[in-house]
Design brief:
This protein is of the alpha/beta class. The protein has one domain. 38% of the residues lie in helices and 14% in strands. A three-stranded parallel β-sheet has the order 1-2-3, with helices on one face. Strand 2, helix 3 (63-78) and strand 3 form a beta-alpha-beta unit. Helix 1 crosses helix 4 (103-110). The protein is globular and about 45 Å long. The protein starts with a helix and ends in a 7-residue tail after the last helix.
């Protein structure tokens, strides 16, 4: 149960970084997994305000992936870019399937607040 709660909190936490666009608005951005993209002068010249990163659904459970996410989010913030986070399969040797949370576990996970980045 603690593990599921952690996963739900992680998902909610990462979802909080996504900025909703007004209905009908087109959001143009770039997708790149490497934080050094934000320091590239060619990227700065494009004046892109949104960037997407894809992370595994259990990103906060893996230190290496969590550290990479923190570096990426920090670089995005420093460049003044709004991050858009997408979720994908678990990485590494074990490709675990995302469990379906119950209403009770979702409610429990939402009762606390956390921030990242």
């Amino acid at each position: 149960m603690t593990r599921l709660r952690g996963l739900l909190v992680a998902g909610l936490l990462l979802a909080s970084f996504v900025v909703a666009a007004p209905a009908g608005a087109l959001v143009v951005g770039i997708g790149d997994q490497k934080p050094d993209m934000f320091a590239d002068p060619r990227f700065a010249a494009m004046q892109i305000r949104y960037a997407r990163i894809a992370v595994s659904w259990d990103v906060l459970q893996n230190a290496w992936e969590r550290d990479a996410l923190d570096q990426w989010l920090g670089a995005a913030r420093a460049a003044g870019v709004t991050p858009l986070v997408g979720f994908t399969h678990a990485r590494g040797d074990r490709r675990r399937v995302l469990p379906t949370p119950s209403a009770t576990s979702t409610s429990s996970a939402c009762s606390g607040r956390a921030t990242r980045g």
